[in-house]
Design goal:
298 residues, Alpha-Beta Plaits, three-stranded mixed β-sheet, 8 helices, 3 strands, monoatomic cation transmembrane transporter activity, membrane, Cation_efflux_CTD, transmembrane
């Protein structure tokens, strides 16, 4: 019976880049479609949607570049690799979302204060198509993000989910304006303001885990417990003392103190340390390196 080899970091980065490029292509089409429909149909909510899709293109390019950089091999100036480029890309995406929300909110307030026409009914059909496309993209890209364990790809997915949310609020705003008739023209502008709140929330949702990774925060899940268990299962290991795990891009680094019999030779201790490192890296292919410090148990 053969088992499929775990994908390499480069392969995971390439999968992330491919999903990002698909999203960029979809967003280019959506910017043109939503922007045109918003102008012709007198809907600022749709124009706001087009603006957000425009920032999606910019931020997706950042994600693509971050993934490409993170996949590069370590060099003399970056002995630990280039993995930090991946969470940095996610943080850049979060800031791009905040900037887009600020711009949309400013323009939305100006439209509320300025009399304008009711939005055209066909804008609802445009939004329905946008919601279907964006939800499909979110599910596809988020699945890739989970599979390759990339905060940047997950951030790119949340961009698509943010579009779904804002499109739903725009749909409701335009519907209210059309049902209410004259005097309710600003309903879709208010919908754009509500959408800004969701955009900022999503920006925080993206920023928080990426910032934690930059700060070498312990990864979610049972990584530390798993590394301890793998080390303690190695013959000659009495116990583990300190154990730290951190994520850097697509890779994980583990540092731990292993306790062994204090009467064995330096060479025997060195061999045990090597066995611990090999056991962890074999069981956890995403672990790039393990630093083992040997301590006497007595």
């Amino acid at each position: 019976m053969t088992t499929e080899a775990a994908p390499t970091n480069r392969e995971r980065a390439e999968r992330g880049q491919t999903s990002t490029l698909i999203g960029i292509g979809a967003n280019i089409a959506l910017v043109l479609g939503k922007g045109t429909a918003g102008v012709v149909g007198h809907s600022y909510a749709l124009i706001a949607e087009a603006i957000e899709s425009g920032t999606d293109i910019f931020s997706s390019l950042i994600v693509w570049f971050g993934l490409r950089t993170a996949a590069r091999e370590p060099d003399e100036n970056h002995p630990y690799g280039h993995g930090k480029a991946e969470p940095l890309a996610a943080i850049a995406v979060a800031f791009a979302l905040v900037c887009a929300a600020a711009y949309i909110a400013t323009e939305g307030i100006l439209h509320i204060l300025t009399p304008h026409q009711l939005p055209a009914p066909f804008t609802l059909a445009v939004l329905a198509v946008v919601i279907a496309i964006k939800e499909t993209l979110y599910r596809r890209v988020n699945k890739v993000g989970e599979e390759v364990d990339s905060n940047a790809v997950k951030a790119d997915a949340w961009h698509h989910r943010a579009d779904v949310i804002t499109s739903c609020t725009a749909f409701m705003g335009i519907s209210i304006a059309l049902i209410g008739g004259k005097g309710w023209e600003a309903a879709d502008d208010w919908a754009a303001l509500v959408a800004c709140c969701f955009i900022v929330y999503n920006a925080y949702h993206i920023f928080r885990p990426a910032f934690g990774e930059i700060m070498d925060e312990a990864p979610e899940g049972t990584w530390t417990e798993d590394v301890r268990a793998l080390a303690e299962a190695v013959p000659g290991v009495v116990a583990t003392e300190k154990c730290f795990v951190r994520k850097m891009g697509f890779e994980y680094f583990a540092d731990l103190h292993v306790m062994v019999n204090g009467d064995i030779s330096v060479r025997e201790g060195h061999d045990i340390a090597g066995a611990v490192k090999a056991a962890i890296m074999q069981a956890k292919p995403a672990v790039y390196n393990v630093l083992v410090h040997i301590e006497p148990s007595t």
